[in-house]
């Protein structure tokens, strides 16, 4: 079995990064998770969702509007400060720029809220495997902190790893089982360098029940899984993929590497 676990920061990136030509309002799940959803639905992979990941996402969601306003206010403050001594004509331009920034802020918050709801709905699918946070997991992880093996900032990271370890201990694992662990936090989780294109977890974050391959984005995951497995799409799904492809690349050519990759996949 192929297992996949995705760190919170990867999900947060999905919710903050508005993709060009992304018709988000037309889709039921975040665009970058469509392929993973299909792989899970078809039983090719099992996606593990540690409860600590959901809790971290809930925390981010509760303060996202406040965070955006704070960061965009800093930007507006810089513009105000450095435009005070400008010509009056330039100050008029400043108003337009600030209006644009405020509009962008509102769009970002709206996009997050819509995509967050879709992400939670995706998590609720019956083929997604949740791993509940237990007192035993918390106790084991906190002991590592007391022993100086992890820092305060690594506590949640260690809880994610402990959740995965506990889940695997309850399963009948086979020698060919493997886990793709995806995180944008390479410095904390992985040792320097890689082996055959995969990152290696640090000793304090080891998972011993199966082979673990570290990745840092979903594109890497899709590349490695699609190289080894063929998932059949229905005719309707194929037509939808072609329609989305044509909208995204209306005048594409073979010099566009991203377009070629999507073309080959379809």
Give a quick precis of the structure.
By secondary structure, the chain is α/β, with parallel strands linked by helices. The protein has helices at residues 8-16, 34-41, 51-62, 64-83, 88-123, 135-146, 155-169, 186-189, 218-226, 235-248, 257-265; strands at 2-6, 45-50, 129-131, 178-182, 211-215. Helices cover 56% and strands 9% of the residues.
Q: Which residues sit in consecutive blocks of at least 5 with pLDDT less than 50?
A: none
Largest sheet: spatial strand order: 3-2-1-4-5
Basic shape: globular
Listing every helix as H and every strand as E from the N terminus to the C terminus, the arrangement reads EHHEHHHEHHEHEHHH
The helix/strand class is alpha/beta
Terminal-residue CA separation: 24 Å
As a whole number of angstroms, the C-alpha radius of gyration is 22 Å
Mean pLDDT across all residues, rounded?
Answer: 82
Number of strands: 5
Q: Domains counted in the coordinates: how many?
A: 2
Figure out the total of helices: 11
Q: How big a fraction of the residues is strand?
A: 5-15%
Helicity range: 55-70%
For the report, how would you describe the main beta sheet? 5 strands, parallel
């Amino acid at each position: 079995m192929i297992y996949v676990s995705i760190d919170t920061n990867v999900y947060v990136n999905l919710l903050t990064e508005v993709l060009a030509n992304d018709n988000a309002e037309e889709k039921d799940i975040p665009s970058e998770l469509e392929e993973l959803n299909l792989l899970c639905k078809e039983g090719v992979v099992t996606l593990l969702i540690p409860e600590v990941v959901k809790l971290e996402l809930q925390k981010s969601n509760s303060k996202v509007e406040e965070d955006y306003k704070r960061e965009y206010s800093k930007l507006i403050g810089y513009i105000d400060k450095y435009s005070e001594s400008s010509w009056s004509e330039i100050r008029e331009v400043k108003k337009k720029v600030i209006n644009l920034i405020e509009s962008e802020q509102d769009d970002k918050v709206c996009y997050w809220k819509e995509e967050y709801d879709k992400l939670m709905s995706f998590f609720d699918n019956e083929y997604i495997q949740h791993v509940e946070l237990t007192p035993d997991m918390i106790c084991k992880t906190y002991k590592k902190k007391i022993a100086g093996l992890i820092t305060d900032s690594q506590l949640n990271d260690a809880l994610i790893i402990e959740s995965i370890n506990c889940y695997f201990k309850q399963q009948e694992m086979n020698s060919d089982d493997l886990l793709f662990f995806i995180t944008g936090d390479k410095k904390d989780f992985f040792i320097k360098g890689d082996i055959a294109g995969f990152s290696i977890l640090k000793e304090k974050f080891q998972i011993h029940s199966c082979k673990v391959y570290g990745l840092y984005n979903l594109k890497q995951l899709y590349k490695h899984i699609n190289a080894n497995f063929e998932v059949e799409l229905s005719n309707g799904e194929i037509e939808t993929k072609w329609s989305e492809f044509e909208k995204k690349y209306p005048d594409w050519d073979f010099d566009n590497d991203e377009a070629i990759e999507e073309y080959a996949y379809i």
